[in-house]
């Protein structure tokens, strides 16, 4: 344990890298597990010890991602904290119940998808309601210091701190729990958050948005009378049930996010030669290759996917999807959102995904595609084997590789769609590097991402492609996909189609969108909370 304390100190000082820390923790866990049966007195001391601060950590309800959470747990354990990990999709009452049961010193909440942000606000308000007086840590890819300051901190009377990554968590927790440092650190956090709130509201006041009608008038101009619309090689659904091998996907892997997950900054392959992180990156990459070989040889991860291509037309900001080219039977409608930010460059459009599908009034039949793929069947089971053997390093590695295979599957399937199944770019000849840099024609935006921020749109896609039946991928109540190593989205073929961020929108678009989706404005505001340019509660009070 003294050795792990040194490891933790070196990591906090930036003198050790995360993979080294997790490997060191593996040695400690295995050693302790081996020695404890022979050390009854010490075992009882450890089990009965109340000296170690208890840290409860959980991925919030409706969210399934846990790589970052697991890393934080390992780092804290290395620094003599007792970590109580509740896992994923944990409801608020469970978090509060376990926090009281174990008398924890601090709670950490993690989440990846945007609906998790509201869930964190709810947990914080519930902590206040039941009278908890302990710090709350917020982390995960979708979280930010601004959201923490504006939305979460105001609903709880005690410190709420956003932590960017695992390298900072120990310093934050140490200060929050240190009797001599707690008060000053907590006060500084509150002062910084007050400034962050002021900056946020000032920026929001300065941000100029235009009306929805003005934004629609400034749509991306496309001459549909001269546009070539490529007819796909088939219409309907194609299912891929474990027939796409993991070996096939390897050339399509983008390794940069893999290193990012391990908090090694830099682009692959340049990161392997980095003066600061190169040695660790090479060791990590070698370990990944070794484990990947085991996974491929044993067929431990199973791929399942489904794609569909259908006739379609846009109707204003919606995309109508039909059964056949007669367009007599409507299968579903995809609802999209339009940028409302006032552009400084008057020639720049207010983008919307629906603009890249021929409008119904053009009299032309266009097409849209959709997909859902996973490499996640088998990932959790494989990772669990390592966890049971006190091996967090390979457990985290397995899940990180599952994510890489899933993204590679999405890249591979998009490639096949462009070249064969839709065939709108049959002569494409790009290197794997160019594919990763998205130098091809067309896009595959995913619901919940900047160009299509509404996660509820996944339901229409899943119903259209019968995703649950064809792939085994399911949706949580907050529309996260399970298995976690899964990807879904739409295919757009138009040469002008591009990725963009919808960013902030006005209430006029929210009302219009709610009407189109046959939802209440209040429900839409909840799902699009990060995109609102206004405070729904303030508007409601005025009304």
Automatic annotation (TrEMBL):
Keyword hit for Metal-binding: yes
Keywords, in A-Z order: Cobalt, Metal-binding, Methyltransferase, Repeat, Transferase
B12-binding N-terminal domain span: 1-47
Pfam families the UniProt entry points to: B12-binding, B12-binding_2, Met_synt_B12
The keyword Repeat belongs to this UniProt entry's keyword annotation: yes
B12-binding domain: residues covered: 52-187
Molecular function as annotated in GO: cobalamin binding; metal ion binding; methionine synthase activity
GO cellular component: cytosol
PROSITE patterns reported for this sequence: ADOMET_ACTIVATION, B12_BINDING, B12_BINDING_NTER
Biological process per Gene Ontology, one example term: tetrahydrofolate metabolic process
Gene3D superfamilies: Cobalamin-binding domain, Cobalamin-dependent Methionine Synthase, domain 2, Methionine synthase domain, Vitamin B12-dependent methionine synthase, activation domain
Stored InterPro entries: Cbl-bd_cap, Cobalamin-bd, Cobalamin-bd_sf, Met_Synthase/Corrinoid, Met_synthase_B12-bd, Meth_synthase_dom, VitB12-dep_Met_synth_activ_dom, VitB12-dep_Met_synth_activ_sf
Domain AdoMet activation residue range list: 203-537
Name of the featured protein: Vitamin B12 dependent methionine synthase, activation domain protein
Organism: Leptospira interrogans str. 2006001854
């Amino acid at each position: 344990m003294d050795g792990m304390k040194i490891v933790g100190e070196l990591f906090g000082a930036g003198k050790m890298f995360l993979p080294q820390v997790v490997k060191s923790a593996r040695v400690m866990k295995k050693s302790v597990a081996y020695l404890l049966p022979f050390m009854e007195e010490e075992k009882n001391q450890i089990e009965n010890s109340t000296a170690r601060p208890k840290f409860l950590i959980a991925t919030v309800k409706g969210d399934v991602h846990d790589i970052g959470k697991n890393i934080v747990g390992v780092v804290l354990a290395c620094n003599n904290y007792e970590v109580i990990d509740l896992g994923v999709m944990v409801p608020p009452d469970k978090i509060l119940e376990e926090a009281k049961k174990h008398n924890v010193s601090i709670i950490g909440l993690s989440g990846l998808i945007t609906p998790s942000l509201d869930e964190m606000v709810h947990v914080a308000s519930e902590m206040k309601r039941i009278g908890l007086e302990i710090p709350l840590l917020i982390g995960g890819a979708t979280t930010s210091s601004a959201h923490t300051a504006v939305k979460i901190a105001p609903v709880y009377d005690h410190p709420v701190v956003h932590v960017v990554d695992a390298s900072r968590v120990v310093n934050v927790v140490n200060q929050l729990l240190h009797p001599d440092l707690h008060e000053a650190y907590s006060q500084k956090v509150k002062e910084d958050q007050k400034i962050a709130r002021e900056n946020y509201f000032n920026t929001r006041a300065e941000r100029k948005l235009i009306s929805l009608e003005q934004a629609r008038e400034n749509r991306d101009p496309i001459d549909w009378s001269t546009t070539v619309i490529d007819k796909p090689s088939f219409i309907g659904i194609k299912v891929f049930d474990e027939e796409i091998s993991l070996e096939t996907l390897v050339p399509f892997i983008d390794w940069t996010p893999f290193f990012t997950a391990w908090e090694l900054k830099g682009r692959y392959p340049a990161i392997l030669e980095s003066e600061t992180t190169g040695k660790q990156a090479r060791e990590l990459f070698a370990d990944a290759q070794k484990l990947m070989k085991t996974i491929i040889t044993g067929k431990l991860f199973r791929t399942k996917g489904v794609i569909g291509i259908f006739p379609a037309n846009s109707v204003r900001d919606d995309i109508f999807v039909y059964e056949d080219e007669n367009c007599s039977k409507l299968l579903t409608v995809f609802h999209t959102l339009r940028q409302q930010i006032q552009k400084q460059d008057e020639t720049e459009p207010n983008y919307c995904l629906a603009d890249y599908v021929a409008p119904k009034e053009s009299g032309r039949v266009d097409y849209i595609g959709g997909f859902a793929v996973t490499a996640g069947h088998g990932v959790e089971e494989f990772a669990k084997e390592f966890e049971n053997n006190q091996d967090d390093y390979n457990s985290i590695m397995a899940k990180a590789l599952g994510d890489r295979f899933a993204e590679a599957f999405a890249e591979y399937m998009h490639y096949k769609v462009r070249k064969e199944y839709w065939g709108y770019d049959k002569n494409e000849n790009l290197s794997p590097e160019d594919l990763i840099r998205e130098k091809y024609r067309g896009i595959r935006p995913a619901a919940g991402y900047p160009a299509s921020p509404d996660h509820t749109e996944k339901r229409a896609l899943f119903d259209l492609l019968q995703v649950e039946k064809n792939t085994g991928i399911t949706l949580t109540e907050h529309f996260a996909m399970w298995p976690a190593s899964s990807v879904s989205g739409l295919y757009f073929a138009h040469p002008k189609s591009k990725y963009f961020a919808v960013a902030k929108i006005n209430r006029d678009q929210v009302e219009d969108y709610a009407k189109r989706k046959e939802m209440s404005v209040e429900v839409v505001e909840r799902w699009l909370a990060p995109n609102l340019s206004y405070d729904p509660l303030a508007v409601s009070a005025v009304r």
